[in-house]
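Quick one, probably user error.
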């Protein structure tokens, strides 16, 4: 393509990016990275006739939320629970009024109770049972979610009658680190070749079940010392940070801060299995889980509506509730004792992700939704 053609492509991409709204790339947000990659692919189709808003359950999305209310377009619910986001944005009076708007005057007392107890909102399942989606979904032209569980939340909590579309979280295959890179990474950690290395990546929060993961691993390591656990990411709360300082002090547990995209690629290739739990869940599909599955790694995930669409044999499901710890330990033991079984699960995971979550196919689904919403 000549210089003129390249200029047209850049102009089209710029026009698209002006109508796509997400946290800035510098925010270390998975949603920000997602939007950049998706936008680059969608720009190949042309400039859209409708704005696309990426929403999540934290303060990074405050300006985007306001824009989506002022200028309706297509909203992408990366989290189908916006309760915690609104808790952080609203005053007590406005929060209670918003809760009543969503759930009725007869729930005013509950709203006041939840406001007073908001310090425990990260672990209290009540905040996850009330996603508070009515205002943003009722004002949208269309809603996109990444799984059936999130779509059901959107329908039940405000989006009844609204076009709600399930579009899978994309996976973009990149160059794989070579064996020497992954070997050096493990060497820097102090993890010997042949040791089964489990990894948890991304922002570390209580709902990612980090402490239960550590405790299941310690039980495993006590009987299988040739195991190690990598926790890579920043703790989102002071309480969890202090707790991890105590819980993760074992020499077989390795801590790293937030990883760049390049470092994450090497770390993902270096681990033998990813642990990616969610409870209570917010309707999210984990981009980390998709990435690890896409490169052929077995992933242990919480069973629930968010993961119900994954095929049997392509992941390792863990029940939510009292059985969680025992099932997590059992899966970690299987990966340790039967590495070929883990590799077979990874092969099935990669086959599924490459077939259902390919970036080009996902972008086409987005484009169809946006064209329909613009008409």
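Nope, works fine. Designed sequence:
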């Amino acid at each position: 393509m000549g210089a003129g053609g390249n200029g047209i492509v850049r102009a089209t991409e710029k026009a698209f990016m002006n109508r796509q709204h997400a946290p800035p790339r510098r925010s270390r947000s998975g949603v920000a990275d997602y939007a950049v990659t998706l936008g680059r692919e969608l720009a190949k189709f042309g400039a859209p006739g409708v704005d696309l808003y990426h929403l999540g359950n934290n303060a990074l999305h405050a300006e985007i939320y306001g824009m989506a209310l002022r200028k309706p377009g297509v909203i992408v619910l990366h989290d189908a629970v916006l309760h915690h986001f609104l808790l952080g944005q609203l005053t007590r009076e406005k929060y209670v009024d918003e809760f009543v708007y969503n759930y009725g005057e007869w729930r005013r007392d509950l709203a006041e109770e939840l406001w007073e107890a908001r310090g425990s909102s990260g672990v209290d399942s009540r905040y996850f049972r009330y996603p508070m989606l009515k205002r943003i979904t009722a004002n949208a032209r269309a809603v996109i979610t990444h799984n059936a569980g999130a779509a059901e939340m959107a329908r039940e909590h405000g989006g009844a009658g609204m076009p709600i579309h399930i579009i899978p979280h994309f996976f973009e295959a990149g160059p794989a680190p070579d064996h020497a890179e992954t070997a050096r990474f493990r060497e820097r950690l102090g993890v010997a070749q042949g040791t089964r290395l489990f990894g948890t990546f991304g922002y570390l929060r209580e709902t990612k079940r980090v402490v239960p993961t550590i405790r299941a691993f310690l039980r495993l390591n006590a009987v299988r010392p040739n195991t190690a656990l990598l926790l890579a990411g920043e703790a989102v709360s002071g309480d969890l940070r202090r707790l991890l300082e105590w819980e993760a002090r074992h020499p077989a547990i390795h801590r790293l801060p937030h990883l760049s995209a390049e470092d994450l690629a090497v770390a993902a290739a270096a681990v033998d299995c990813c642990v990616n739990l969610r409870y209570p869940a917010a309707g999210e599909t984990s981009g980390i889980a998709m990435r690890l599955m896409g490169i052929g790694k077995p992933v242990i995930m919480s069973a629930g509506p968010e993961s119900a669409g994954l095929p049997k044999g392509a992941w390792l499901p863990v029940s939510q509730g009292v059985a969680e710890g025992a099932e997590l330990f059992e899966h970690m033991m299987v990966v340790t004792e039967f590495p070929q079984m883990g590799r077979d699960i990874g092969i099935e995971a990669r086959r599924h992700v490459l077939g259902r979550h390919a970036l080009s196919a996902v972008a086409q689904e987005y484009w169809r939704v946006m064209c329909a919403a613009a008409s």
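The mean pLDDT is 93.
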